[in-house]
Write a structure and sequence with these properties.
Elements (H helix, E strand, L loop, with lengths): L6 H19 L35 E8 L7 H21 L4 E8 L3 H13 L6 E5 L3 H6 L6 H5 L14 H4 L3 E2 L2 E2 L1 E6 L2 E6 H6 L11 H14 L4 E4 L8 H12 L7 E2 L4 E5 L1 H16 L5 H5 L3 H10 L3 E7 H7 L11 H4 E4 L1 E2 L12 E2 L4 E6 L6 H11 L2 H10 L15 H10 L12 H16 L5 H16 L4 E3 L2
Parallel strand pairs: 1-2, 1-3, 8-11, 10-16
Antiparallel strand pairs: 3-15, 4-5, 6-15, 7-11, 7-12, 9-10, 13-14
């Protein structure tokens, strides 16, 4: 017998089930938010819409920049520029754009060679600062080792559209480039010359301004200083492995170019491994450091020899020093440990002469060579876009103009002139038409080290110039390959 459900009972059951389903379908309550701070209500104030919640703060980005620079020491002006302009102004502009970006400086007080070694160690294990000071001639070697990437691969499409490229001549863009790709931005370029102390020259009875027209005139001046002032080192020109690339550019290149050749034949695309000019240049070193002791050979063999040469010049113990214009604007400048307070009155400069007039590189009477340092981006950075923004900011017209007020020099941007240093203006005008550059090839670093070793062998008395040149030629052939070498009998 089946049980029947009466119509009224059925209706009651349906209504009950509907109520249960409706209750189950209600959305879950959202978490209660903390109420906004209570404000005192104004009398009879109209009701207003709720205040919009503040936008979330941008995630913090902490950038680091490193350079061979120490406050009160080497490249002190770079530290000053960073602390007084770059950091506060960049962070201010970032904040105004709603970004939470900070940038801090990692000071490095070692030599250029030690900094290079540190970079290699850091980059190989994925570490290092986001923005790194870099010498242009390191680029090919680091690229070949897979430790650098082009700016566009790190900074993104904003790199190509940067306004600064239109103000940097193509030749200067190449200072931190390799095989058609740009890996960094140079801070500027430079030249090299003989710096001398006017007060020492006057004591030795040598009229100033002074400009030797040959190696003989340069050496005769050194001889006169040695005779008149035996406690003064007449001439210091970089040699040896301890000074690293400073030996190659400030020393070896400046002498070798005076013989009519450089380290590399750009027309033949080959390295000059042996030639009469190389032996002539080595004999110049032998005259200065071994035969006549016109320079202090000991300084050239010490790890801190270059710094000792700076101190000797500062203290009036060295009369002539062949150096880059960085020596004038930074080493002897305000705030440096080698500062000469009356620099502008007692320090003068002269062009480096060829062995004889018309016998220098490209038939010139005088010679010089230029390099370029700047900054690259670490391919391991977590903040490629922000690192590029800082690098672009560093090289803006406004930032470089601020740097000119601290340390004037020839900048890469054509809209940032030298306005406060007549010495650098005069050097640039006289020397830039005479200059040449290093070959941007991966093997350059190793061959440069062999050139440094060659000068050391002569300065130390270990080898004769002929023996040292032969050892150099053998090394260059092994490094570059016999088909990439010129040997002139």
């Amino acid at each position: 017998m089946r049980t029947r459900i009466r119509p009224l009972a059925l209706l009651a059951l349906v209504l009950a089930l509907s109520t249960i389903v409706a209750a189950c379908a209600q959305p879950s309550p959202t978490p209660t938010q903390a109420p906004a701070p209570t404000k005192a209500a104004a009398t009879s104030a109209p009701t207003t819409a709720p205040t919009a919640a503040p936008q979330p703060t941008a995630a913090p980005v902490a950038l680091k920049m490193t350079c061979r620079c120490v406050e009160g020491g080497v490249n002190a002006n770079l530290v000053k520029w960073f602390k007084t302009y770059l950091k506060p102004e960049f962070e201010k502009q970032a904040k105004a754009a709603g970004k939470n970006i900070t940038v801090d400086l990692v000071e490095f007080g070692g030599s250029d060679e030690e900094l290079k070694q540190q970079y290699a160690l850091d980059l190989k294990v994925g570490k290092g600062a986001d923005v790194m000071a870099f010498d242009g001639f390191w680029v090919p070697e680091f690229v070949a080792g897979g430790m650098l990437k082009p700016l566009e691969e790190i900074g993104g499409p904003d790199v190509k559209s940067w306004e600064g490229w239109s103000h940097i001549p193509a030749g200067l863009q190449q200072l931190l480039s390799y095989q058609g790709k740009i890996y960094g931005i140079a801070s500027g370029t430079d030249t090299r010359a003989i710096f001398y102390r006017k007060d020492i020259f006057e004591k030795a009875g040598i009229p100033t301004p002074w400009q030797p027209k040959s190696w003989k005139e340069l050496l005769d001046t050194a001889r006169q200083i040695k005779q008149k002032l035996p406690d003064v080192t007449p001439l210091q020109i970089n040699a040896g492995t301890a000074m690293g690339e400073a030996t190659t550019m400030q020393g070896w290149d400046m002498v070798l170019l005076g013989t009519g050749i450089g380290m590399y034949d750009f027309d033949a695309n080959k390295w000059i491994a042996s030639a009469p000019g190389i032996e002539q240049a080595l004999n110049f070193y032998k005259t200065v450091y071994v035969d006549e002791k016109l320079g202090d050979a000991r300084i050239q063999l010490l790890k801190d020899g270059r710094n000792q040469s700076f101190a000797g010049f500062r203290d009036g113990k060295i009369a002539m020093l062949v150096e880059g214009d960085w020596f004038w604007r930074s080493v002897l400048g305000k705030g440096s440990e080698w500062e000469i307070p009356n620099r502008d009155q007692i320090v003068l400069w002269a062009k480096m002469p060829a062995i004889e007039p018309g016998k220098g590189y490209k038939g010139q009477d005088f010679v010089t060579i230029s390099g370029g340092t700047g900054f690259v981006l670490n391919p391991n950075t977590k903040y490629g876009k922000e690192a590029w923004q800082f690098l672009a900011f560093m090289n803006s017209k406004e930032a470089l103009t601020a740097y000119q007020d601290i340390e004037p020099r020839t900048r890469v941007r054509d809209d940032v002139p030298i306005t406060t240093d007549p010495v650098l203006t005069a050097m640039g005008k006289a020397l830039m038409p005479l200059t040449t550059v290093r070959p941007m090839l991966p093997e350059y670093t190793k061959i440069s080290e062999e050139a440094q070793r060659m000068t050391e062998r002569v300065v130390s008395g270990e080898m004769t110039p002929a023996q040292a040149m032969k050892a150099y030629a053998d090394a260059v052939k092994q490094i570059a390959g016999a088909d990439k070498v010129i040997e002139v009998k």
